[in-house]
Structure formats: C-alpha cells, structure tokens
What does this fold into?
Amino acid sequence: MEFDWQMIADNWQNFLNATLITYYVAALSMAVAMGVGLVLALLRASRNPIVQAPARIYVGFFRSLPLYVFLLWLYYGFKVAFNLGFQAIQAAVLALGLISGAYMSEIYRSGLLAVDRGQYEAGFSIGLTMGQLYRKVVLPQVFRTVIPATANQFVGILKGATIVGIIGVFDLMYFARNATARTFRPFEFYSTAGIIFISSTLVFAALAGYLETRYRWRRA
It folds into this structure.
C-alpha cells in the first residue's frame, strides 16, 4: 500500500475545519483554566485556613482526576445524575478547563510568591486597600512572571484536546477516525492528523521558550 496524497488533497477543508475546532476548544479551555486558576491562587494566598481549604481540596482532587474519566462523566454521567446535559464542545471545554485550572492555580501561586513582601508593606503604607494592591501592584507582576509557564500549560491543553472526539467533538482525531472508517486508509489520515498536532505543539512550545527567555532576561 502506497501513501495516497490525493486522499489528503480531497479532504484538506475537513482537516482545516477540524484543526480550527481543536484550537477553538483549547483556547476556550485555556480561558476557563486561567480564570479558575486565578481564583484558586488568591484563595490559597489567604492566611485564613478556612479560606484556603476549598482551594486545596479542589487542586488535590482535580490534579488526581484522569481527563478521560472526567470528560465522559461530564458528558454522559452529569445528565443521569443531575438531569443536566452539556453539548459536546461545552463538556470538552469544561473538562479541560477545570482540570487545567488546578495546574494554573499552582502557576499563579508561584507568581504570587515571587512578589517581594516589601511591596505589600509599601502598598499598605501609602493607603492602598487589599483590592487596589492586588489590582495595581501584585497581579501585573504575577501575569508577567507566569507568561512562559502559561504558554506551556496551553501546549498541555492542546495535547489533551486529542481525546475530545470520544464524545463527538469534530476535532482532528474524530475526523481522522471517521475518515478511516469510511475509506479504510488509516495511514494517510492518522499520519496527517499527527503531523498537524506535532507541528502545532512545536510552534506553541517554541513560543513558550521564546517568552521564557525574553521575560527571564527582562527580570535579570
């Protein structure tokens, strides 16, 4: 059996659409993860153990939860348990975003710990409230510090998105699997999907490396 390039040429638009949907799911999941992670990090920054407890439990639970299991439970089990169903893309974004949020919280927390305590004292000394201090002084520094790690986390989300096809999201792997079943040409479709995924992760990994080098140099 020889590699049939015509198969790829005939399905280039489907490959493009599936790739864009994969990026779409990954981008929305990253937005959810960043929001959830920031809230968790701020809760864990509190000195009150009662405030810290929910964030600690969340991080511990979701970091130990397999994405595959959580994805299936959200899409199928949630409707059975609570009579509330999600569309395939909604379930995919929530599963990736909520689990990745636990990892993003640790990234944000490392950024918070990197801010010198003297800046808190200086902010309070000039009359800033806690909210003003975080908004104007602390968080801008945190966001700048965590940019490289956040880019790396997005690469992880993009790779995790390879399994969302199991619940019917028209991503790259879903298209490759269906096209293979229709044409009996697995090598062409899975190879092309793999090349697209590898190329995408290499591009974003290179971007993460560039950002890490750039912001490390600026902090030096």
User: Anything to note?
Assistant: The radius of gyration is 21 Å. The first helix runs from residue 5 to 10. Residues 5-219 form a domain with the MetI-like fold fold (CATH 1.10.3720.10).
